[in-house]
Amino acid sequence: MVSNEVNQYIEKIIPARSEQVLKIEQYAKLHNVPIMELTGMETLLSYVRLKKPKRILEVGTAIGYSAIRMALACQTAEIISIERDEERYNIAKENVESFHLENRITLLFGDANELQKQVENYAPYDFIFIDAAKGQYQNFFDHYSSMLSPDGIIVTDNVLFRGYVAEESGLESRRLRSLVKKIRSFNEYIMQHPDYQSSILPVGDGMMVSIRNS
Description:
The protein is α/β, with parallel strands linked by helices.
C-alpha cells in the first residue's frame, strides 16, 4: 500500500471528473456506499482502455459508479452488472439512465451466487470485474471465470483490505478477522491458480489482475 501522502498526491493530479460523476461520488460518501477509491478506479479504467473489451461482467454494482465509469472509458463496451441490494440496484438504475447508458449497461438484480444461468446468456466476457462481498470472492471467481473469453482479464478489488491481510493487529472484531482470513485464502488460491497469471497491485484497496494462460 502506498503512503497517504503519495496517494493524496496522485488523487490531486487525476483528471477532473464530470459534475454527474462527482454527484455519484458525493452521494456515496454521504450515504456510506462503498465505491472504488480514485487511484484504484483510474487503474481499472486504464486496463479497460487497454483491453477495449466488447463485453464486461461486473459482480457488485452498488449504485452503478464503476459500471458507468467503465462504460464512459470504453464507448463500445456492453456491461452486465449484478447487485443483490434492492435499494442500491434501484439507485444504480436511476444513475445509469441519467447518463443515457441503459442501452449498454444491463443491471441484474439478485445474488451473484445464484445468477450463473442468467449471466451465462450474455457470455463470453472479455473482462470480469469482481467487487462485491469479499468473503465470497472465491465463489464468484469460480462461478464466472468459466465464462471468460480465452484472452480475457479478471480484476478483483479490495484484495489488500486496508492492509489487514498483511497485519491484522488491532482487529478486535471476530467477523473482520474471519473476513481477512477469507481474503488471504482467496489471494493465495488465485496466485497459485494453474490457469491464470496473477499479480496484486497496491493501489486503492488492493487490486488483483488475473490473465488467463494462453
